[in-house]
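The material for today's practical consists of a large collection of protein records. Backbone structure tokens are a discrete shorthand for how the chain folds in space. An example says more than a description, so a record of this kind follows:
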Amino acid sequence: MGKDYLKGWVPYRIKRYWAFIIVTVFALGVPFIQIDGAHFFVLNFSNKQVHLFFTIFDMQELYVMPFLLIFGFLGVFFLTTLAGRIWCGWFCPQTIFRVIYRDLIQTKILGIRKNIKNKQKEPEGQIVKRFIGFIMWTFLAFIAAINFIWFFVPPEDFIQYIQNPSEHMVMVTTILIIAGFLIYDVIKLKEDFCIYVCPYARVQSVMYDHETIQTIYNTHRGGNIYSKDQSHKLVESKKELLASDDSAECTYCDACVRICPTHIDIKRGTQLECLNCLECADACTEVMGKLGKESLITWTSYSAIQEERKPKFIRFRTIGYGIALTVAFIGILWMGSKKENMLLNINRTTQLYKIKDEGKRVDNAYIFLFQNTQKDSHKFYFEIVGHPDIKIARPKSEFALQAGKKAKKVVVFYTEKELVKDNTKDTPIPITIKAYATDAKEKIVVTRETTFVYPRYDILQKAKDKK
């Protein structure tokens, strides 16, 4: 009967390994995914750009960032409400690094740890093997640090920069700091990082409800190994447990305790240290399966255990967060569609206007900041839309701008017409500026609103009377 129960059983540990592989491949591959020089996702600090969905946004276009941050926070809240700390146990880099070092390097490759199912006892002695493990992890830590940098310095730029490290000491220093932290974290700090340092443990604890899916020991079947009062006193023996509950199924094997990477006893109930890695569920499944019974530790909710039903994945809170996530994602796509093919900032000078030619002409000066966000060089110019009486004094002709480069231009508009006859105040006249690439006018074009300040009519008349 037990063999039938375990037939076809795949431990959560193996499923987690596959999740780790997918996350690792994704993290290593994303910085390299690009189309025509635009990456899938990179925060390009070296060029002050954000690459998102193969679209490049410059610093002036970071209106998409709030939506990215909102999406990230809502994603964390959604995962926590749905499945507790599933991120910690299945996708977090800290967990992946610890599994690589402890389970792969120390246990499988070097044999420093004799049993992958016992994570309570730290290895002693074996200095040579432990030093080899240190060297192996140091190598991997630098790979992880470089991979992290690739999300801020694209690989194609990184390869160029690393050839001249003395000219890019900020990048090199950052890599050294990250690698040093990972070495200390994985070898020395270990799961204490999850328990004492990472703030997510504290955040998730206030977001649980009775329907949150998490790693739970079923006291209805296994019995209360710890008392329910505040003392949480341990029931010392199976005999003592059966004396209070003759149907209790827990065998007191403590396999779930020995395998726990954060050194807790899941039979005590939900605890801050639990990562939802479900290794305790694997251990219990193997023991109880041989007895022809289901595991006493499962991935479920407290309400599901009490009502003897399957957990509810779809409920009010998860639907709410799901809708909010969808709205944020639509916001990202919508803001992404607003990307302009060139950038133009218009600023007025401190002098509102200048009267010339003895009152016959009024000039307004501006500072235009152009940026060519395209991958190719173009020639740019602009025009005033809808105001034929306001003309361009300078610059007189188009100008070339290389790919990704900026240009600051002093621009002067003028008029020789009497636009307003108001003796009480200067009059700002709204105007629309249409800027474009002269060699791609239909594709690369933006419009901006500004004002042309026309002087008080009496001031203009005084200038004319001086003639």
Observations:
- The mean pLDDT is 85.
- The first helix runs from residue 2 to 6.
- Residues 1-32+84-308 form one domain.
- The CA atoms of residues 431 and 450 lie 6 Å apart.
